[in-house]
Design brief:
Oligomer: single chain
Distance between the termini: 31 Å
Number of strands: 14
Bound molecules: (3R)-3-hydroxy-3-methyl-5-(phosphonooxy)pentanoic acid
CATH class of the largest domain: Alpha Beta
Number of helices: 8
Order of helices and strands: EEEEEEHEHHEEEHHHHEEHEE
Structural class: alpha+beta
Amino acid sequence: MTHSDFNGFRLTTAISDPISVSWQSPSNIALVKYWGKTGLQLPVNPSLSMTLAKAYTQTKLTAMPRETEGGIELDFWFEGLQNVAFGQRISKFLNSVTDIFPWLVQVNLKIESQNTFPHSAGIASSASAFSALALCLCTLDADLFGIMLDENEFRAKASYIARLGSGSACRSLFPGFTVWGASKALSGSSNLFAVPVEEVHPVFETLCDTIILVNRKEKPVSSSEGHNRMVGHPFAEARIKQAKNNTTELLQALKSGDKQTFIRIVENEAFTLHSLMMTSEQGFMLMQPETVRIITRIQELRRETGLDICFTLDAGPNIHLLYFKEQFEQVNKLIVEDLVENNEQNMLIYDSFGFGPVKVG
Ligand code: PMV
């Protein structure tokens, strides 16, 4: 499959009335991390994520009649306010997909978007935002041209489009666990779009993710810049091999219900991601003292209590504490009375295994 296989149609007659569509789409948390890209937003290694339940973006896309053709004409609203900075990033993305959706330059566009979670809170807002927008684009395209895709084809196409906006967004299109990047351990997996992991032991559907916020300031190095620093990284080859092995082992653990392997791999991936940052040519560190204090304490508490808890980190200082629903009471007591005890600044967001995007209009 190539990019041009997705090339779409132009309108032969201008639309006469506005036409709208709305989707809500969740964020996801990577368990095996995508870190380093090549070509047209392709990953250098496979990644595996869990789709979240409560952290999502709701996006309404409206196409309106337009008299003259030209570039993208976009009116972008975020949480009830016109947002020029976000609008520019979205316009750039829309310009990059006009071969797939040629009608985008034949209409005026309005996008109204809102998130259920705060900005810069350790939740990938680009994942939920670009997956919601990709779903809106694919649905509007299907409505305008009477395109009939089955559910799997539709999700794969939306995942392909979401990837072009933000790599990790392509994994938000599916419920539960998702793999993006070719892996020998999962048939049908691809670098072009993500695919759902079908064989999952029910215990992993009870995973909870409490995000412990230690800092909400803008990151000193963005994810895009972080990906760039993997080019020529002295450990790149070993990293790619490790990610492939971790994906294979994690898929097996998810299937068999092996919590201990899950915990080992998830923490190994979080440490690896941050080690890669620190050991790149222009090394940088996104963990903060409070991050180190909390993850050290999580490991101690696991040893002391025997609870099945572990952490992961995204490209930032905030901690995702993962555990199983049946241990919610005990883990929550530890979170409140121990982990965040010394720091009233620490904010908590409770999320869990989610069931994927929903069309809401
Ligand atoms: O999708 P991007 O370009 O924002 O990169 C995401 C990178 C990580 O969040 C660190 C890992 C991942 O796989 O989501």
